[in-house]
Each structure stands twice: as structure tokens, then as C-alpha cells.
Design goal:
This protein is mainly beta. It is built from 6 helices and 33 strands. The strands form 7 sheets. A 7-stranded mixed sheet has the order 11-10-9-13-18-15-16, with no helix packed on it.
Amino acid sequence: MIRWFIVFAVVVLKCLAARVELDWDVGYVYGASDGYTYRRAIGVNGELPFPPVHVTQGDILVINVHNSLDVPTSIHAHGLLNNGTNYYDGPDMVTQCGIPPGESFTYVFETKDQFGTFWIHGHTRHQEVDGLHTPLIIHGRKPPVVDYDKELLMTFEDWYTTEFAVRQAYIDSLDDIRKLAPNYPKALINGYDGNNTAPITFVPGKRYRLRVICMSINNWFKFRIPGHKMTLIEADGVESMPLEVDGLSMGPGQRYSVIVTAHDSAEFNYMYNVTSYPQTVRISGPVPLEYSGLIKYCEGAPVKTISAPSDEQLVWPEEAVMQVADKQVPLPVDRRIELTINRFTVERHMEPSVLGDSLYKPVLVPTLYTALSMGDLAANSSVYGPQTNAYVLKHLEVVEIVINNPEIEGHTFHFHGHNVQVIETGPYGKSNKTTNPPLPHRKSGPWPMWRDTIQVRAFEFIRVRFRADNPGVWFLHCHLAWHEYNGLAIVLIEAPDVLQQRQSVPKEMLEMCKHQGVPIQGNGAGNSGFDMTGLLPAVYPPS
């Protein structure tokens, strides 16, 4: 009976599915998103911000991308699993070559049974830093875990005064990184200067779903509406058991949905508060930055002042405290991988951090193409090149990954191709009891939360699990742009034997590589066997 119902549900979903097609011309735009600095950025169809994408569960989203930039580009649907279509995942030189300037490519994203709050962003040359990003909302076909009257969308991002490539070229030109001039970003709310965002209108007695997306590339954000409680119902496109919180604390790439019930009276208006604060960069000026906006019940009504308790007195979402709505129990473990973030000093006093054995650097062949072309050798991690930090997984095994962070900096890590169960978090390393007291040790309840982007705070470890049921090559990386640029990433090579049987790269994608002189087969260096001639040496931390 259960099997019949599942088959019936899949058939119904396919019958209801629509094909949603968009044309995106990715190009340069000019403006002052932060209200202060006029600069070049990257938009779509001449717009920045450009419109959010709305589809319904089961729909097929088709995006025809034309590249009007003078460098390659690609896009990634952050949180979509792309099961069976790994080649549409987007990260340059992991699953594809970038779309060359002046050329076009069509991405086909199958939402299947996913629904919730996602986003789409560039995944070549860190173009998401310069504006190439927008929300992706997949509306569910079943009733939500908590009913509501209306949806509202809020996005947070940090915004720099110069383009990523310009800033990085300046950094790379310094003979000593300690000479780096500080560059603290402003914050944008819904794509504009955080202090000049349009009011949010509440109607007394109505219940609102706020979808909140942290599209930041470096900063964390906290969001509160004093005088109003929030009920958390979703994290990263996965429904959660309702959880009452006072506000949201979000790292780069994370998303939440919360239910907020408006007061019965329109006697007062209220203010929402947004705090933007860094984890990693050298900074100047006020830290953190505070922004506020109006919750409007009635035009001209006075704003009610509410005293703010300290953050320590408030309830925030905790990764290991949330519970998944469908009550999935913890997976039994077949294999365990332990990764410890290791910061070390290289030339020019640079201090990058490593997650695997070496700093991640792109190799000469897209790693997916190596997995598809190397036959039985694809099961040997060495063929991908030491710079990829490749881990080969067996089909359907349950993998537990532990990430240890002994650093004073926090990180968010994004799993491409998977949601993961958050099993446990706790203190790790030698934290300072005065300036950085040890974090509490938390174990998940009976139904651990699933999500695709996890926080690993300073001096913390996190334990997550997933089943390797999505054959492909999946990037696992810090979602802070400068950390990813400097190599804080690994690659999961999932069931390459099954991948070779089930998937083949569209001819148009192979042509994009050929147009740029990039090999489309062979090991990480484009050679046969284990011959890595042509690859630059991997950079390892000192032993």
C-alpha cells in the first residue's frame, strides 16, 4: 500500500509539473547598491538586483544563460541536489568549464520533490561577490507545517567598494599581506542600502511567512523584530518541527523560514533590527554594523520602543537543536571522515586554511570529466590530483563527516549535491574563556535537522551524516569567498562506477571546454594513469 502511494504521488507530481523558462543575459551593470559607492557590478538583463525566481515543486526550471562578460561565467542553484544531472551543478572546473564570453548555455534544473527557500549564484571567479545572485523559491504542493496568510522575502548581503577581481589583484600584488588596507563592507537588505529599505507592512492579526536568505560572501547576519516572536519552520529548503526563537543568526549561504504573527492592534509601528558582523577580514570603522527598518502597521503611527536584551538572553536557532519535520531518525554510519581546519603561513605572510591534505586548487580537467573518463581508475583518489583533496565514496554508504575548527574564525560549509543530518556540535581546541568562552556541547534529538549549509563556529566541531545516493562529483567548500579562493575545500567523488553508467555530459558543455583549450578527459592533468605532468605542485601545511 505504501509503495503504491509513493508511485501514485510521483506520477501526480510529474503530471502537475510545469516547464519554467528564463532568459538571462549576464553582463556588467553600473550603480551604487550601497547608496554611496558607484562601481561596476554583475547583473542579469541589465538589472541589479534582478528578480527572484519562483517555481513550484516538481517544475523544471530552464535558464538560458548568455555571457556578455569578458570572462567565463557559470551559475549554481544553491541547495538543489541535481540528482542524475551532476553536470548542471555549476562550479567551474569541478563539474564544467565556464561559459566563454559571448557564448550561451542552457541549464535545466529539475526540482523533483524539493521545495523551500534556495538561491542561485555565480560559481566562476567568485562572481557572486559582485552581484550575480538572486533568490530561488520553490513553492510546495502540500500544506506547510504552520499555516500563514502571506509570504515575505528578505535577503541580506555584504557589499564591497571594489570588484572581487580588482581587490584580489591588489592583494596578490602585495609583497607582505600585513600591508593590506582594511576594506569593511556595507550591508544590503533586499539588494539595497540596508538603512533605506522599503517598510514591511503588517496587517493586524495576520500571520506571515518570512523567507530569509543570507547571500553574504563574508559577513554573518542577525535578524530580529523586537516585540514579535518567530516560529522557525524551515532551514535550507527542509521543513523543520516548529521552533520558537527570538531571532535568526545566519552565516553565508544559509536560509530560514519563520512565521511571525502580527499584533491585533495597529496602534504602534515597530522596527526590525539587522546586525552585520565579520568573522575573518581585517577591518576599520564601527563593528558590528547595525541596520533597522520599519514594520508598518499604520501610516503615521508612533514607533514603539522596546528595550533590547543581550544576545545571550535570546533564543537563536542551533544547528543541533532543530528537528526535521518528517521525523527521520539518525542514519547508521558506514564510514567516517574527520577533517580539521589547519591554518598555516605561506609566502608573503599569507595565512590560508586547509580542510583536506592540501590547499584546494582547480586542476586542468573538470573533475567530473575525470571521473567519467578514467574507467576503473576513477575509484582511486590519486587520479584527480592532490590539489582537489578528493575523497571517493561508495554507492549508498552512509558517510559521517566531522569538521573540527581550532581557529578563532568561524566558517560556513556548503555541501553540493546533498543535505546532511546535523548530529552533534561542541567545543574544540583551546578557546579563550574571557573573549571566546567554550561553546555548549549539543547532541541532536531523535530527528536531526537536515540542511546543505552548516556553521562551524570558532573553536567548535560539528558532526554530520548523509547517504551517498547521488552519484557525481560534489564540491564541499567554505562559503566565505576569500576562504574558498585560498583553498578551503575538498571534493567528494561519489560512486564513480555508477556515475559512469548513468550520466554523460551534454555535448554543448564539452564544446565550451574545447573552445577554451581545456581537456575533456584524462586525470587531473589531462594525462593517462597517474601522470600529473603539467600540474602545479600542491601546497601542503608544514608537518
